[in-house]
Design a protein that fits this description.
Elements lengths: L18 H16 L2 H14 L1 H5 L7 H10 L3 H7 L9 H30 L14 E7 L3 H10 L5 E5 L12 E7 L1 H27 L1 E8 L6 E2 L8 E4 L11 E12 L5 E12 L1 H5 L3 E6 L4 E3 L2 E17 L5 E5 L3 E2 L7 E7 L9 H5 L2 E9 L2 E4 L2 E4 L8 E9 L16 H5 L3 E9 L4 E3 L5 E17 L3 H20 L3 E13 L2 E15 L6 H13 L22
Helix pairs in contact: 2-6, 4-5, 6-8, 8-12
């Protein structure tokens, strides 16, 4: 005999999935992970965490000067923080990404749950478990009524519950003559949960819509007789930021004048309150030239015609008068930038163009422009010839200025800073320094050609922001709806009770009167805290026994085990 050897059998390898199927499976798993409630909660926490820099760091949309100073004071760290958009948090790419992912995650979570809740509302309560004594709370008693009558009496005591009564033909593996009752309550808990999450989605949509269709404009208005402004176009603002679908047209026409401004400080110089008394016009007031008076404070804006006028900040605007050799004068009042928020030591620039016809040619007139650059102290403190400020209130104003003559650069076409001179004009010798002086109100400095520069004092200015958000009402509605839904989901409890009634032997009056056993069980589907007391009250109302379970009943015992439904 010859033996033949066969090669060992090899296990069959599963067929390798094609690349499109693997990509589809990867996308499916990613979608399931993104639309899980755990992911939505993580993204919500991450969004709150990402908003912290926006509350702690100065934001460019609110105060660009403060942002520039913050960056300059941080050396190399400041530019890196700017690259990470930490000064534009709420418009940064990473905050927008978290915002969009949270929106998608919530929608993916909520839509299936809405359909599941709708199916649950249409589904009758589950059938009675086979062994009610295994539930955490249960009781039993005896009744002289028929099973149907006992169940009917219990059903009348369950107003507000969803109740289903099943007779012997509908009960699986039941006893002869058995009648059961299934009742459930607390559907509002899941509804409140869904309302909360739907309102959260609505809140995200409303905030996004407000950013898309809204606008914000900042303007500095000098108080005490300043010219004011009218929001007819973006050019009326010092800075203007419109939504992505807003081109800056169709602005709400509002005219505002600041009658006076008052800043209240503590003795240590800390700001306590800022108040601006303003006059405004809007709508029909513009045609009738009617001015309305009101008061604006921090966090108390003027709300008119769907817009809000906020008081964002304040500062000082020095006034200088230049008297030329021929007796003609030029007076300007320009806001200066607060460099020190605690003492309001401010810096700025003034530029004066000579009166027309004073010099023979245009080139000669341009060479005789006057510029003033320096510091303003609302409460002066001198260290020799060095000026600083010791208090933010305007108790003893003074300026330390450099006076220049030459070309200020106003007609060169180059962009000019509101708070500093063009260093190129000074470097090229086209703008020459004439003198450096310290002045108090009423004091003057005379230049070599006889021109006199006088410091007249200073006025306060208010930084106003006009904000338009067409979705602000919906933001409020969604926020209130969120709170209502959350309250319902926390207060309402989901619970179920079951009753089973069946005949069990003859009664005390003979075989013709049969005894009915009524069993009752209860289960809290969410939290058992407080459910024991409620179950006892239900048992006493439905079973009619004064003592727990009656003389033949089992006293409800809290247990950890429960049957499947």
């Amino acid at each position: 005999m010859t033996a033949t050897m066969t090669p060992p059998s090899t296990a069959a390898k599963p067929p390798r999935q094609s690349l499109p199927r693997r990509a589809l499976a990867l996308l499916r798993n990613a979608w399931r992970g993104l639309t899980s409630m755990r992911t939505a909660l993580m993204l919500l926490f991450l969004l709150a965490l990402a908003a912290i820099p926006g509350a702690l760091l100065p934001q460019r949309s609110l105060n660009p000067q403060k942002v520039d100073k913050y960056i300059a004071d941080r050396g190399m760290l400041g530019p890196w923080m700017d690259r990470l958009q930490l000064f534009d948090v709420f418009s940064s790419f990473w905050f927008t990404a978290i915002y969009a992912l949270l929106f998608v995650s919530l929608v993916g979570c909520i839509v299936p749950r809405v359909f599941d809740h709708y199916k649950a509302l249409r589904t009758p309560p589950v059938m009675v478990p086979r062994n009610l004594s295994r539930l955490p709370h249960h009781a039993s008693t005896e009744s002289g009524e028929t099973p149907a009558a006992a169940i009917e009496q219990a059903r009348r005591g369950l107003r507000g519950w969803r109740v289903v009564v099943r007779e012997e033909s509908e009960v699986r593996n039941g006893r002869p003559g058995e009648v059961t009752l299934s009742a459930e309550k607390g559907y509002l808990r899941e509804l409140g949960n869904l309302v909360f999450h739907l309102a959260l989605v609505g809140l995200l949509v409303a905030i996004a819509a407000g950013k898309l269709f809204g606008y914000e404009g900042n303007v500095i208005v000098v108080a005490d007789g300043g010219p004011g402004f009218c929001s007819t176009s973006p050019a009326a603002f010092d800075s203007f930021k419109a939504g992505r679908v807003n081109d800056g047209t169709g602005l709400t026409p509002i005219c505002v004048r600041v009658k006076d401004f008052k800043a209240d400080y503590l003795p240590n110089g800390q700001a306590e309150m800022f108040t601006a008394n303003i006059s405004y016009q809007t709508g029909a007031d513009l045609e009738s030239d009617t001015w309305r008076d009101t008061t604006v404070q921090v966090n108390h804006p003027l709300r008119v015609a769907g817009d809000r006028v906020y008081l964002q900040g304040h500062g000082y605007a020095p006034t200088f008068t230049v008297t030329y050799p021929n007796g003609q004068t030029r007076t300007e009042t320009i806001q200066w930038r607060p460099d020190d928020g605690s003492t309001f030591l401010s810096s700025g620039v003034m530029r004066f163009d000579p009166p027309g016809g004073m010099y023979g040619s245009e080139d000669e007139r341009r060479k005789n422009q006057i510029a003033i650059e320096g510091l303003f102290a609302p409460t002066a403190l001198m260290h020799g010839s060095l000026l600083t400020s010791r208090y933010p209130g305007m108790d003893d104003p003074a300026v330390a200025i450099d006076i220049y003559r030459g070309e200020t650069g106003l007609d060169t076409g180059r962009a000019q800073s509101l708070f500093s001179l063009d260093p190129e004009m000074i470097k090229q010798g086209r703008l020459a320094k004439q003198t450096r002086v310290n002045l108090r109100p009423g004091e003057s400095a005379t230049l070599s050609d006889g021109s006199k520069v006088t410091f007249d004092g200073a006025q306060q200015y208010a930084n106003l922001q006009v904000s338009h958000d067409p979705a602000q009402t919906w933001v409020l509605v969604c926020a209130l709806t969120m709170m209502a839904g959350l309250l319902v989901s926390l207060v309402v409890k989901r619970r179920r009770i079951w009753l089973r009634a069946y005949p069990d032997g003859p009664g005390d009056d003979g075989p013709e009167q049969r005894r009915t056993v009524v069993e009752m069980g209860g289960l809290a589907r969410t939290d058992q805290a407080g459910w024991g007391g409620e179950f006892d009250r239900l048992r006493m109302r439905l079973l009619g026994s004064e003592h727990p379970g009656g003389p033949t009943d089992q006293r409800p015992v809290a247990r950890t085990e429960s049957t499947g439904e």
